[in-house]
Amino acid sequence: MASKFRQDMPPIGGYGPIEWAKKIPKKGLSGYSIFGIFFGVTGLAWVGFYVEQQYKKRWFIEMNDGRIALEPLLVAEEQRMYLTQIRKNRDEENELMKNVPGWETGKINGEPVYHNINRRFPVVHPEAYYAHTKWAKMYDRYYENRKH
Questions:
Q1: For the chain, which terminal residue's Cβ has fewer other Cβ atoms within 10 angstroms, N or C?
Q2: What is the number of alpha carbons within 13 Å of residue 66 lying toward its C-beta?
């Protein structure tokens, strides 16, 4: 009895090559692209830095102009407060020494404290200026520890 057995044979033209080498997938970017991205980001950062410096320069100029414009007002307010405090000191001295015979307000040993020949702004010693104020307020003003 003859059987019809047919053996499997390779395909015509043969099998393909056997891949025996390890295949490592490509990870990330190439070196050139990394350097390109680095230089691009660095260039953009320098441009941003330059723009920010120009903005800050304009902002500081504007703030300085504002300070210069406000300086006369601030000096006038400071001098007004100064004269108001001197006036309060004179009124307090009048009230304290009203019963002392021969006492003249604003004089020490017969010489006027607030008199100056050139009619300049009166300069008063700090202890005399802050004589009738609270210690904490005097300390804050004297050492300029005001919250501003």
A1: N
A2: 6
Does residue 38 surpass a pLDDT of 70?
yes
Q: Enter the pTM of the model.
A: 0.53
> How does DSSP assign the chain, residue by residue?
---------PPTT-PPPP--S--PPP-S--HHHHHHHHHHHHHHHHHHHHHHHHHHHHHHHHHHHHHHHHHHHHHHHHHHHHHHHHHHHHHHHHHHTTTSTT--TTEETTEESS--TT-------HHHHTTTS-HHHHHHHHTT----
Residue 101 has pLDDT above 80, yes or no: yes
